[in-house]
């Protein structure tokens, strides 16, 4: 009986270590992703490498130093080699997104601070992508897909 | 099924580390360097009350309007 508890406990500990290495919870701070994500929402995110990214996913990216946040959360609208979106063209020189960069936009129209102001974000700075939103009203008891 | 998924997510939220990410907006017609308190909004951290945030505007390269950042939060 005791060895069974040890095995189950060990397996559970390994599972938790693995989960913590792959996933985390991100609290949304601001309104630029409205109406998809609201200020104060909590989302489950998965850490990813650059090649795994797709257009339309919501990414958590390391913020430029002047922003005053560790991370930003924005939607991926362009990957390396894609045409630069017209709304971003005024702040960049290229017609296609250069290797190692992504274009990120907020869902909240013109209010969002994103690639329309900052230009490209380094692909290497993309930290994670959202998997699902934890409902703020029930503190994680129901979920809504985010992408 | 929804309950099972919800309980699984609750367990995940319990074991996983939590951080924040800024869904940063530009601040139109706001003084750079000044600050202001925003509207009250629902937040379970305040129990039955709501929460409001203290914002400031800072310049960002390439930005005409500055960048809104959150300085502090308190329950309304």
Total beta-strand segments of chain A:
8
Please state the average pLDDT score of chain B. 78
Shape of chain A: elongated
Molecular shape of chain B: elongated
Strand content range of chain B? 35-45%
The low-confidence runs of chain A, each spanning 5 or more residues with pLDDT under 50, are: 137-145
User: What is the count of helical runs of chain A?
Assistant: 2
Q: Which strand order spans the largest sheet of chain B, edge to edge or round the barrel?
A: 2-3-4
Number-wise, the strands of chain B total: 4
**Distinct helical segment count of chain B:** 1
Helix amount of chain B, in percent? 10-25%
Biggest β-sheet strands, sense, barrel of chain A: 8 strands, antiparallel
**Whole-Å distance between the termini of chain A?**
45 Å
Distance between the termini of chain B: 37 Å
Rounded mean pLDDT score of chain A? 86
- What characterizes the major β-sheet of chain B? 3 strands, antiparallel
Sheet-strand content of chain A, in percent, reads 25-35%
- Helix fraction of chain A, binned, reads 10-25%
The structure class of chain A reads alpha+beta
Q: What Rg of chain A, in angstroms, do the CA atoms define?
A: 18 Å
Describe the structure.
The complex is a heterodimer of chains A (147) and B (76). The C terminus of chain A is likely disordered. The termini of chain A are far apart. In chain A, a hairpin with an 8-residue loop joins strand 3 and strand 4. The longest helix of chain A is centred in the N-terminal third of the chain and has 21 residues. In chain A, strands 1, 2, 3, 4, 5, 6, 7 and 8 form an eight-stranded antiparallel sheet that branches. Chain A has two helices and eight strands. By secondary structure, chain A is of the alpha+beta class. Chain B is of the alpha+beta class and 76 residues long. Chain B has one helix and four strands. Chain B has a three-stranded antiparallel sheet, with no helix packed on it. In chain B, strand 3 and strand 4 form a beta hairpin. The longest helix of chain B has 14 residues. Chain B is elongated and about 50 Å long. Chain B starts with a helix and ends with a strand. In chain B, 22% of the residues are buried. At the A-B interface, helix 1, strand 1 and strand 4 of A face helix 1, strand 1, strand 3 and strand 4 of B. Strand 1 of chain A pairs parallel with strand 1 of chain B, so a sheet runs across the interface.
């Amino acid at each position: 009986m005791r060895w069974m508890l040890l095995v189950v406990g060990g397996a559970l500990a390994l599972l938790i270590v693995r989960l913590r290495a792959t996933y985390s919870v991100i609290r949304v701070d601001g309104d630029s992703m409205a109406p998809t994500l609201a200020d104060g929402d909590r989302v489950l995110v998965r850490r990813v490498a650059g090649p795994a990214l797709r257009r339309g996913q919501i990414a958590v990216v390391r913020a430029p130093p002047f922003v005053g946040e560790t991370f930003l959360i924005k939607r991926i609208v362009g990957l390396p080699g894609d045409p630069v979106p017209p709304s971003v063209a005024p702040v960049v020189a290229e017609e296609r997104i250069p290797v190692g960069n992504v274009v990120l936009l907020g869902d909240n129209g013109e209010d969002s601070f994103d690639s329309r102001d900052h230009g490209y974000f380094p692909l290497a700075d993309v930290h994670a992508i959202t998997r699902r939103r934890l409902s703020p009203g029930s503190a994680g008891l129901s979920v809504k897909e985010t992408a | 099924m929804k309950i099972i998924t919800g309980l699984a997510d609750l367990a995940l939220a319990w074991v996983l580390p939590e951080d924040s990410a800024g869904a940063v907006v530009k601040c139109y017609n706001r003084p750079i360097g000044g600050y202001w308190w925003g509207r009250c909004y629902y937040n379970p951290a305040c129990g039955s009350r709501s929460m409001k945030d203290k914002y400031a505007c800072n310049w960002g390269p390439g930005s005409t309007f500055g960048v809104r950042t959150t300085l502090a939060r308190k329950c309304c």
